[in-house]
Amino acid sequence: MDKMVLLPPNEQHEQAIKDLYFYKDPKDTEEDIDALIEWLYKQSHLPNITDLVWLRHFLIGRKNNLQRTKKVIESYFTIRVEVPELFNDMSSDAEWIQKAVKVGKMSVLPKMTPEANRVHIIRSIENNDGDFDAMAMCKGSLKIIDYLMRREPVYGLVFLLDLKHCQLSYLLSFTPTLTKNLMRCIDEATPLRVRGVHYVNPPKFVSRLVNFFKLFMPSKIQNRIVIHETYDTLYEYIPRDVLPDEYGGTAGSIEKFEDDIMRVTKEDDEWYRNMPKADLSKRPVQAKKIDMDMSGTFKKLEID
C-alpha cells in the first residue's frame, strides 16, 4: 500500500475501531477465513478465492460475522454479471476514464477521520470540451472502492460531493435505474458502510434533486445525507486536518490526491483483466437475488 496515498490507522483510529466496531482474536479470524475458502470451493457458481488478505478485509468489514460475509461475497460476484455495464473495461487506460476526467475528478484523502472512516471526494470541474457521463462517474467510484478493499479493511466510507461546477443536466443523467444499481453495488456487494454523504458548494436546484435520489437509497443512508451551504458545518463531520486545503483544511492539495489515486489504481489493471467471475448458470435455484431494503418506497415505483 502506498503510504503517501493511504496513511495507515494511528493509535486513535485503532482505538476507535475497537470501540465503535468490533474486535476479534486473529486466531479466530484465521479459522473464519478457512471456512470462507471452504464455502467458496463448494459454491459451483462462484470462483474459488484463496486471497487471504482480500477475504480478511471482507470479514472485518462485516464485523467478523461469517454469514453476513458470505452474503456480501456472493453479491460481489453475482452483481458483476447481473449489472455488467458498471464493471466492464475497468483498467486504467479505458476510454471512458479519459473522457470522465474532463468533467469530474475523484480522490481518497490520505488521513482517516477520527472514527477511522475514509473520505472519498468526487467533484465537478470547469470544462468546455467534455461530456458528462453518469455511468462513468459511478464506475470510477466503484473502481476506487475496489482499490480500497484490496488494500485495507474499510470500516466506513464518507462521500464528499463538490457540486461547484455541476450543471443540472449532470444530476438529471443519474436515472432511477442507474441510481438503484449503484446503491445496490455499494450497499449489498461491498463490506463497507456509508457513514455520510456530504454535498458542498450546492447550486440552488440541488435540494429538490437530492430528496428525489433519496427514494432509491436505504433509509440508513438517507439519514446521513447533509447539504452544506458553507464549509463551517462540514468541519463538524470531517476535521480540517483531514480535508484538502481547497476546503479550508490542512491536509494538502486536492489535485495531488486526485493525481495520486489515478496513479496507484493502475496497480490493479492486471487484477481487473484476470478477475475471477461468477457463472450464474450454475447458481442453485434457491440462491435468489436478495432485494435491498428500500423501506417500501422503491417497490411502489415503476422503473425501466
Write a structural description.
By secondary structure, this protein is α/β, with parallel strands linked by helices. Helices cover 42% and strands 10% of the residues. The protein has 13 helices and five strands. Strands 1-2-3-4-5 form a five-stranded mixed β-sheet. α2 crosses α3 and α6 packs parallel to α8.
CA radius of gyration is: 19 Å
**Estimated helix fraction:** 40-55%
The whole-number mean of residue pLDDT values reads: 89
Strand order of the largest sheet: 1-2-3-4-5
What's the assembly state of these chains?
Answer: single chain
User: Poorly predicted ranges (pLDDT <50, ≥5 residues)?
Assistant: 287-304
Tell me the β content. Answer: 5-15%
Structural class: alpha/beta
Along the chain, the helix and strand elements come as HHHHHEEHEHHEHHEHHH
Termini separation: 41 Å
What tags apply to this protein structure?
304 residues; 42% helix; alpha/beta; 13 helices; single chain; 10% strand
What order do the helices and strands come in, and which of them pair?
Layout: H1 11-20, H2 26-42, H3 52-61, H4 66-82, H5 95-100, E1 104-108, E2 118-124, H6 134-151, E3 157-162, H7 168-172, H8 176-188, E4 194-200, H9 206-213, H10 219-222, E5 225-228, H11 231-234, H12 254-264, H13 269-273
Helix pairs in contact: 2-3, 6-8
